[in-house]
From TrEMBL:
<dbReference type="GO" id="GO:0000271">
    <property type="term" value="P:polysaccharide biosynthetic process"/>
</dbReference>
<feature type="binding site">
    <location>
        <position position="262"/>
    </location>
    <ligand>
        <name>substrate</name>
    </ligand>
</feature>
<feature type="binding site">
    <location>
        <position position="326"/>
    </location>
    <ligand>
        <name>substrate</name>
    </ligand>
</feature>
<feature type="binding site">
    <location>
        <begin position="254"/>
        <end position="258"/>
    </location>
    <ligand>
        <name>substrate</name>
    </ligand>
</feature>
<feature type="binding site">
    <location>
        <position position="30"/>
    </location>
    <ligand>
        <name>NAD(+)</name>
    </ligand>
</feature>
<feature type="binding site">
    <location>
        <position position="35"/>
    </location>
    <ligand>
        <name>NAD(+)</name>
    </ligand>
</feature>
<feature type="binding site">
    <location>
        <position position="333"/>
    </location>
    <ligand>
        <name>NAD(+)</name>
    </ligand>
</feature>
<dbReference type="InterPro" id="IPR014026">
    <property type="entry name" value="UDP-Glc/GDP-Man_DH_dimer"/>
</dbReference>
<dbReference type="Pfam" id="PF03721">
    <property type="entry name" value="UDPG_MGDP_dh_N"/>
</dbReference>
<comment type="pathway">
    <text>Nucleotide-sugar biosynthesis; UDP-alpha-D-glucuronate biosynthesis; UDP-alpha-D-glucuronate from UDP-alpha-D-glucose: step 1/1.</text>
</comment>
<dbReference type="Pfam" id="PF03720">
    <property type="entry name" value="UDPG_MGDP_dh_C"/>
</dbReference>
<dbReference type="InterPro" id="IPR001732">
    <property type="entry name" value="UDP-Glc/GDP-Man_DH_N"/>
</dbReference>
<feature type="binding site">
    <location>
        <begin position="154"/>
        <end position="157"/>
    </location>
    <ligand>
        <name>substrate</name>
    </ligand>
</feature>
<feature type="binding site">
    <location>
        <position position="268"/>
    </location>
    <ligand>
        <name>NAD(+)</name>
    </ligand>
</feature>
<dbReference type="Pfam" id="PF00984">
    <property type="entry name" value="UDPG_MGDP_dh"/>
</dbReference>
<protein>
    <recommendedName>
        <fullName>UDP-glucose 6-dehydrogenase</fullName>
        <ecNumber>1.1.1.22</ecNumber>
    </recommendedName>
</protein>
<dbReference type="InterPro" id="IPR008927">
    <property type="entry name" value="6-PGluconate_DH-like_C_sf"/>
</dbReference>
């Protein structure tokens, strides 16, 4: 089988590489000629464990190619996956669909009318987008033989390949049996591992993606608020999470408290679903509250640091460990660090920081930060150490050495990486989330 993938962002590149690993012939398209050139040389624009090897292997095998020429890429394919960005539209919080619709039109103009093609929306798109894509394509080329299908992606940055290869489920939304058969063919290897396939309508599939992300965002926000309450009443949030998570109806995952969710998906998707629900006269009050609570949380985190530093950070140095929105990525989008670091600087602190993968991107977004060559260097002479991302290498830090390097032995751990007892034994004044009095 052959497919084209439009957009070599996170979802497009990972999906393209993984489909080629399934044995599908894949051509990835992007308007950015420099990016395509780099991809052809095997240079991966994002940090994702295992992706470089997968791309190299399948490019060598001739199953994966890259081009800027959309018309050439879609020639003779069974399906075209649209995986372009859907950022938050300035001003109103809705998803900006202009890239999706422009891609749909371009695809329409390039397709061969003699060949049946499935046009698949892989990007996260609001309910109604698939129908609009079909309308645009039909208007541009009434003679085309095509169907539209929604096939949202549920992969997480940092474990994207595993998530694609061994998903909990695949959701396929279309009204057409013919399109369903093509999609089944593409995902054939997943049938071998008995992956559940949820076959549904376009609208249901589109909404399922948003419902999944907003539910997970709500789960995190719930445990974050429970963590705050734990601190007030002297309870331990990890035990609460375990105690509720072992109930199969609740589940153990996504109950880790922290500085608030970030990233390229949850903030954007919660906001977009709130807007859609308002537009359709069925407001999602729970998700409205989730958005509000999470925004406030990220902003309030700097106050914890100020409190741990004795009420002021003016003239003090804060050593930050990790700035990306989560580990195993270089992605800075909506990272809590983008709220917390500027707030500390505004309160008069000097910030030094280290991140294993995100510093290149962060340099631009966090002006005035002194970037260090490793974790220990970031903490040297600081009045407070602050953990913002739970990279594995931070778990293994020698806390006695940390205590010696710091000018004042204050450790604020917003990801609960350390054992409070061990931190205190090392001579640190340790504060974390939801388990300290
Ligand atoms: C998220 C979803 O998990 C994926 O299923 C989905 O496909 C993806 O969005 C998307 O729509 O493309 P991702 O943004 O890569 O994936 O990251 P997550 O691992 O979900 O983490 C999101 C944020 O929640 C991070 O800031 C993380 O630190 C935070 N988080 C996560 C917590 O604070 N606690 C948790 O228990 C879990």
């Amino acid at each position: 089988m052959r497919i084209a993938v439009i957009g070599t962002g996170y979802v497009g590149l990972v999906s393209g590489a993984c489909f080629s690993e399934f044995g599908v012939e894949v051509c990835c398209v992007d308007k950015d000629a420099g990016k395509i050139e780099r991809l052809r040389r095997g240079e991966i624009p994002i940090y994702e464990p295992g992706l470089d090897d997968l791309v190299a292997k399948n490019t060598r095998a001739g199953r994966l190619s890259f081009t800027t020429d959309l018309a050439e890429a879609v020639r003779g394919v069974d399906a075209v996956f649209i995986a372009v960005g859907t950022p938050t539209r300035r001003g109103d919080g809705h998803a900006d669909l202009s890239y999706v619709y422009a891609a749909a039109e371009e695809v329409a103009l390039a397709l061969d009318p003699a060949r049946y093609t499935v046009i698949v929306t892989k990007s996260t798109v609001p309910v109604g987008t698939g129908r609009e894509v079909a309308r645009i394509v039909r208007k541009a080329r009434p003679e085309l033989d095509f169907d539209v299908c929604s096939n949202p992606e549920f992969l997480r940055e940092g474990s994207a390949i595993e998530d694609f290869m061994r998903p909990d489920r695949v959701v396929i939304g279309t009204d057409s049996d013919r399109a369903r058969a093509v999609m089944r063919g593409l995902y054939r290897p997943l049938f071998l591992i008995e992956t559940p396939m949820v076959m549904t309508s376009l609208e249901t599939s589109e909404l399922t993606k948003y419902a999944a992300n907003t539910f997970l965002a709500a789960k995190i926000t719930f445990i974050n608020e429970i963590a705050d309450l734990c601190e007030r009443v002297g309870a331990d949030v990890h035990d609460v999470a375990k105690g509720i998570g072992l109930d199969g109806r609740i589940g153990k995952k996504f109950l880790h408290p922290g500085p608030g969710y970030g990233g390229s998906c949850f903030p954007k998707d919660t906001l977009a679903l709130v807007k859609t629900a308002q537009d359709f006269g069925a407001p999602l009050r729970i998700i409205e509250a989730v958005v509000d609570v999470n925004d406030r949380r990220k902003k309030a985190m700097a106050e914890r640091v100020v409190a741990a530093c004795g009420g002021s950070v003016a003239g003090k140095r804060v050593g930050v460990l990790g700035v990306t929105f989560k580990p195993n990525t270089d992605d800075m989008r909506d990272a809590p660090a983008l709220d917390i670091v500027p707030a500390l600087q505004a309160a008069g602190a000097t910030v030094s920081a280290y991140d294993p993968a995100g510093m290149h991107e962060a340099e631009r977004l966090l002006p005035g930060v002194e970037w260090a060559k490793d974790a220990y260097a970031a903490l040297e002479g600081a009045d407070c150490a602050l953990v913002l991302t739970e990279w594995n290498e931070f778990r293994a830090l020698d806390l006695r050495r940390v205590a010696k390097l710091l000018r004042a032995p204050v450790l604020v751990d917003l990801r609960n990486v350390y054992d409070p007892e061990a931190a205190e034994m090392a001579g640190l004044e340790y504060s974390c989330v939801g388990r300290c009095s």
